[in-house]
Structure formats: C-alpha cells, structure tokens
Amino acid sequence: MNTCGDDAEDLRSVICFTSYFDVANHCGRVFGISQTQPRGYEFPTFHDLVPPADLVWSFKRGEVSWEAYRPIYWSHLGSRSDAIVRWIEWVPPTEFTLCCWERSADRCHRSIAAEFLADLGYPVHVV
C-alpha cells in the first residue's frame, strides 16, 4: 500500500490529498471533496470540505482570482471547523485520502483544505 509520499514518519493517521486520477496515491479509505466525481467513481463525500459550487465556477470562469478564492474558501472551512473535526475524529484512526478533480494541487482547493487541517493540528500530505 502506498503511504502518500512514503515519508519516514508514522503515516497511519496522515490525511492525504490528491486527484481522483492519481490512483497510485490513494491510501487507505478514499473520500471525495468535490461537488461531483468522475464517472465510475463512487467514493463517499466529505461534504464540509467541498467548496461552494458558485465559488468554484466563478474561479473557473475567471471571475474570481486565486488570491480572492483562498480567503473565501478558508472562511467557508472556518464556518464548518467543528463539523470537520467531528468528521475526522469519526473516521477510524487510519490513513485516508481526500480526492478532487484537479490533477495538480496548484490552484486547487485541496491545497487550501490541507493547510486548514494542518492548522488544526492534523498531519497532512498533498500530492
């Protein structure tokens, strides 16, 4: 089993973030963090990390810059932080992967979600 980077640290409880399409980096239980999933994928969704659809589409259409997207999504996560913590604590204490559509984490909400969870004290790995 891949351990999302194969770092020397104990990765049993690392939260991995990657693309649906980067199957080699899917570790442990897999959950979606997007409004939709590619055809043929049927992972449960971690809804509190899903960005608002209007924000995603505004960014994709160029109406919202990445610099503006980050604080809006961060605020969205902050408003759900209690639910996010409860969900993470509910998931068995093993490694799991959170997936979205973008192949690269650059300018992708998963990089922001990972930073947010790291600020809450959770070990994360972004691919």
Output the structural class. Answer: alpha/beta
* Beta strands, count: 4
Q: Identify the strand order in the major beta sheet.
A: 2-3-1-4
Quick one: overall form?
A: globular
User: Could you describe the largest sheet, including whether it forms a barrel?
Assistant: 4 strands, parallel
The radius of gyration is: 14 Å
Estimated share of beta-strand residues = 5-15%
Quick gist of this model?
By secondary structure, the protein is an alpha/beta fold. Helices cover 33% and strands 13% of the residues.
Can you tell me about this structure?
The protein is an alpha/beta fold. It has one domain (15-126). 33% of the residues lie in helices and 13% in strands. The protein has 4 helices and 4 strands; from the N terminus they run E-E-H-H-H-E-H-E. A 4-stranded parallel beta sheet has the order 2-3-1-4, with helices on one face. Helix 2 (66-78) packs across helix 4 (109-119). It is globular, with a radius of gyration of 14 Å. The model is unreliable at 7-12 (pLDDT under 50).
Question: What labels would you give this structure?
Answer:
single chain, 127 residues, alpha/beta, four-stranded parallel beta sheet, 4 helices, 33% helix, 13% strand, globular
What is the topological layout?
Elements: E1 15-19, E2 29-32, H1 53-60, H2 66-78, H3 81-90, E3 96-100, H4 109-119, E4 124-126
Parallel strand pairs: 1-3, 1-4, 2-3
